[in-house]
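We give the entry.
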Amino acid sequence: MTARVAGRGLTRVFGEGETAVHALDGVSIEAHAGQLTVVTGPSGSGKTTLLNLLGGLDRPTGGEVVLEDGRVLSELPEAEVLTTRRERIGYVFQSFGLVPVLSAAENVEVPLRLVATAARERDERVAAMLERVGLARHAKQRPYELSGGQQQRVGVARALVGRPDILIADEPTGQLDSETAATIMDLIVELTHELGIATIVSTHDPLLMQRADRVVRLLDGVIVPD
């Protein structure tokens, strides 16, 4: 089965000479449709760096990131990488990343505006996604009027409203209490399987690891045996 996105021999070095930091050293990983891959490891192990490379937010020093259609994401021109990110990849962030002055619905709508989706379709897709994440009644509320769990649900809805092939989530439950985190984890797992998304999540949370189809453990920039 062809991976939706694959990292092959990924290396990422920050800085030069004696002060260079080797954040990743020859990491290979695949993410498949309908599967949740969890990347775990201690702070500084390279989890965020790996997710940034797989999601096209950064380029590797060595190795390559390959998409399902055979394109090498890490070698595409910046304009094509930007288009790919907008059309094929959704992102969920630990800090939620919502625009404070926009309502929940307006935050979810942002990715659709970036790809010039027609207004009627935007409205329909935003309403459907807010309903799916259990926030239909909160569409007009701004982030400061929502709980942390509700804000992260908006973040999940925003990431998925564009119907991406790939979902990248960096510590999505890191700022939530354990009960709220469990609901967000369940939601991500359900949507991954239901929508056939290749989801890659970094986390320290053992409960999310238990829900994963595959767990990849990083230590000092390399994958260690499970």
About this structure: The radius of gyration is 17 Å. Helices lie at 47-54, 78-88, 104-114, 119-132, 148-160, 178-195, 206-211. Strands lie at 5-14, 21-31, 36-40, 62-67, 89-93, 166-170, 198-202, 214-219, 222-224. The CA atoms of residues 90 and 160 lie 6 Å apart.
